[in-house]
Design a protein that fits this description.
Elements (H helix, E strand, L loop, with lengths): L1 E5 L6 H10 L3 E6 L2 H9 L10 H12 L3 E5 L5 H11 L3 E4 L6 H4 L3 H25 L4 E7 L14 E6 L2 E6 L7 H20 L2 E7 L1 E3 L25 H10 L4 E4 L5 E6 H13 L7 E6 L2 E4 H11 L6 E4 L17 H4 L9 H13 L21
Parallel strand pairs: 1-2, 1-4, 2-3, 4-5, 5-8, 8-12, 9-11, 10-14
Antiparallel strand pairs: 6-7, 11-13
Helix pairs in contact: 1-9, 4-6, 6-7, 8-10, 8-12
Length: about 375
């Protein structure tokens, strides 16, 4: 297959591109390098050094003999998006090209507006380009479990069958997102479903849980292939933050009671889920939704797992929760679709956590403890 990875320079976009190439597909990457610019804006950087994209691609070609094409541009530019799709002619487009941080979207009005404009307009341009050029192109869109919120009923895979006043229908699952970022993802889902229903497009929406892990087998072969390791309070995942804090002998910072439950997925499973979605496309006119997670844990459980695995003494510090969210809630997520396609999940284990401790230890001099403290308050606009 010919697969175009949008946002292919990012934390997940890069290993996804490498994984697809490693599996024999012809891969192109498009990126505007906004994620690197956020580091400059916020004064933080990946714990693990990240090489420029052209060096990464060159290293992969050197090691594998496989070439990945690079396209520099922004999909909020409609002309660039049309030229990209018409020139590369992909069978599938994997869409990571969005601002992905909930805290970033909550900094102030400018960041909220930027997040929604960037994410929603980029996706709309992509939908129109596919509709105009080749409606058989399969869109694989990275959504988020955060679209759903924490409803007091089971979370189905994108759709819900309802009965009301004696009548029955199948509707998109109701959403209650928790940030302007998550709201942008909900808008994306509705726009994509509309395009499938109206234009006969085919799309798979992958509502992904919190991703943990730093490398897949292919990227572990050379440091030039490394992906990001974000540990700050704005872009870092909670497990990354806990791992760094443990290694630096700093208390693990849990927001609120820590009873908030989240879906989790190993980075190795993330890239395989995307491959499975690409090679098993949705039908024409189908808006297909998979909940891309493999297990669920509370934030406190994650913290206690890290403290139990780390050989040194580590403590947990409970902070006032800067987010507006339920502290304790029902959380039962259906996630069988990708398993049915053949996913063989990895689960959070001592071995994986130990390997992350080793990564942090090698780069501990790059860690920024101050950047791990929460500074964005959901309850008031502005800083």
């Amino acid at each position: 297959m010919r697969v175009l990875v949008l946002g292919g320079d990012g934390y997940l976009g890069w290993p996804t591109a490498v994984h697809l190439s490693d599996c024999g597909h012809t891969v192109g990457i498009a990126d505007n390098f906004a994620r690197r610019n956020y580091d400059q804006e916020l004064g933080v950087e990946s714990l693990v050094p990240i090489y420029p994209l052209h060096i990464r691609v060159g290293a992969w070609a050197e090691l594998s003999g496989r070439q990945i094409d690079i396209f520099c541009g922004d999909i909020t530019d409609a002309a660039f998006t049309r030229e990209l799709i018409s020139g590369f002619r992909p069978h599938a487009v994997v869409h990571f090209a969005e601002q992905r941080s909930a805290p970033y979207s909550m900094i102030d009005q400018a960041h909220a507006v930027y997040t929604q404009r960037n994410n929603v307009i980029g996706t709309l341009n992509l939908l129109f380009a596919i509709a105009e050029i080749d409606r058989d192109i399969h869109l694989v869109k990275l959504g988020t479990m955060g679209e759903y919120g924490t409803p007091n009923i089971d979370i189905e895979e994108g759709w819900l069958t309802v009965e009301h006043n004696g009548r029955r229908d199948r509707v998109l699952y109701p959403k209650r997102p928790g940030s302007f970022y998550h709201l942008s993802k909900v808008h994306d889902s509705h726009n994509i479903e509309f395009a499938c229903r109206s234009w006969g497009l085919r799309a798979t929406d992958l509502n992904q849980g919190i991703v943990y892990g730093h490398e897949i087998a292919a990227t572990g072969a050379d440091p030039r292939l490394a992906t990001r390791f974000d540990h700050d309070a704005i872009f870092g995942t909670v497990l990354n933050r806990f791992i760094v804090q443990a290694v630096l002998d700093h208390p693990l910072t849990v927001y609120g009671s820590g009873q908030q439950t989240r879906g989790l997925i190993d980075i190795r499973d993330t890239v395989e889920c995307i491959r499975l979605a690409c090679v098993n496309p949705a039908a024409p006119g189908e808006f297909r939704v998979f909940n891309q997670m493999t297990e669920a844990m509370s934030i406190e459980e994650i913290a206690k797992t890290v403290t139990a695995c780390y050989p040194g003494a580590s403590e947990i510090e409970y902070l006032d929760n800067p987010r507006v969210e339920q502290e304790s809630h029902y959380y039962n997520v259906k996630h069988s679709g990708l398993i049915d396609l053949g996913l063989q999940p990895h689960y959070l284990s001592d071995t994986l956590i130990d390997s992350l401790f080793a990564v942090v230890e090698r780069h501990r001099d790059r860690a920024d403890l101050a950047a791990m403290r929460p500074t964005i308050n959901w309850r008031r606009p502005g800083r």
